[in-house]
Amino acid sequence: MPRHFIAALQAGIVVVFLAGLFGQIVVIPTTAADEVDNFPPYAPFAVPYATVAILGIVCVQVALVAVWRLLSMVREDAIFTPLAFRWVDVIIGASVVATLLALGTAAHLFFATIPSPDDGMDVLSALGAAVVCVGAGAAFAMLVVVMRSLLRKATELQTEISEVI
Question: Does residue 68 contact residue 6 with C-beta atoms inside 8 Å?
């Protein structure tokens, strides 16, 4: 893979990581405070939901660090080593944790009585978004598991070719 392509991907990872950091520090707490100011009955839900959102972003950031490391391994032509599996496992773990956070949020939104300023559409929209996140997270985790098995097969083939040569 060309080095400039890897460098461009790593630059994108830095941008997304920093955007997530900005969201964790500024956007999520500010939005939670604004929602409580606009509708005070949301107050008991602000900190738990903000915490879950921040933890979700942490999961994405952990996966981004793992992808960065895998890209470095590609650049060093060391992707077909056992160390690569550890980083792929980190991505799988982060996506599973994020999916479980979304599942917990969806369950809470479904079963809890959460006040709504209008006709309940805010809660229904949040529930819909949480359910979509659960589906997307589960699909992503399964995709990475499949990709991990392909990496294992490629690593085995690389080892066989090295033994033959």
Answer: no
